[in-house]
Amino acid sequence: MNRNTRIVLAIVVLAAGAGYGWHRWQQVSAAPAAAPATPPSAAVSTVLPQQAQAPITVEGYGDLLPAKVESVNFARPGILAALRVVAGQHVRQGDAVAQLSADPAAEASYRQARSALTLAEGELQRMRSLFALQLATASQVQTAEKAAADARSNLDAQEKLGGAMPASEGRAPFDGVVLALNAAQGDRLAAGAPVLQIGRTDRLKLNLGVEPAQRQRIRQGQPVALAPLQSLAGSGSLAASPDAAAPPAQGRVASIQDMVDARTQLLNVTVEVSPQADAALVPGMRLRGAIQVGQQQGWKLPRSAVLSDEKGGYVFQVQQGKARRLAVQSLLETGADVVVDGPLAADRPVVSQGNYELTDGMAVRKARP
């Protein structure tokens, strides 16, 4: 094969390769572009937010006490012979709660006064007999009369001091509970010294401690929601309760002190507990109270719709098929619902189920029923 022939063959091969390459490029250019990958989406359930009213409250803590407390005492001195109750015991009106026996010294003084009166009356009779016989003067009779009168007055005084009464009973003035014992059996008591204290259980009050800065917002007669501290475990809201049929006990502001307590540095607000309050409330319980000082507009949502992390509470609201995270603040929790404050739109659904796996801006779709 000569040189010219080889050149011609090379040109033919190059031309064929170029033609094949141009043909493949045309095929690739004419092929349709691949469809972009579909972004991931989450199946969720949603609800529309509903406007609702939530109370604006001032919260505090305090101890539950009887509204009326009386002391049991004795009008005369003596020895506490018997103490028939213990602290915390329930008593009924008229129940014997303590017994006082006479002081031995008072008994001795009474016997001496009685003997002195007997002697004085005998001497008066003798003086009158002698006067009748003109053996005594009128002055002597008057002296004997005065001595008898003084002896009778002394005996009356000793009777009032209990010298003539061997024992007496102290009784409960009303139905209630024994709050404290101020004396022990065998103690020598002065007249009027308190033996024990009884408080009424049908009328209760709460001394609620609140921050002094809230004083101007509190008014007499405002409603107060009360709940024992143990019922609030794991909940940041007073009204939250797994049992919607057991709402917090109610009360009203009875009075407000205009002086800060030196021990707690709080302002004491006296709350009268409603007679229809939960019977489980007993004196001595520590309660949390929320004084309703106004109303606030919010959004009512299922409890499952509201999540929380280190940044606080939040919800996901659907906008154009994507979940948008919005910060909210819980105002009120009642049963399965919660009222929140936040920048929600009334016409955009809020994710109530499937929200734990969402991130801000993630595509969502409606879950199948």
TrEMBL record:
Kindly name one Pfam family recorded for this protein. Answer: YknX_C
Gene Ontology CC entries for this record: efflux pump complex
Q: Name one GO molecular function term.
A: efflux transmembrane transporter activity
Positions of the YknX-like C-terminal permuted SH3-like domain: 300-365
Supply the Gene3D superfamilies for this chain. 2.40.30.170, 2.40.420.20, 2.40.50.100, Helix hairpin bin
PANTHER family from the UniProt entry = HLYD FAMILY OF SECRETION PROTEINS, MULTIDRUG RESISTANCE PROTEIN MDTA
Family of this protein = Belongs to the membrane fusion protein (MFP) (TC 8.A.1) family.
Q: What is this protein called?
A: Efflux RND transporter periplasmic adaptor subunit
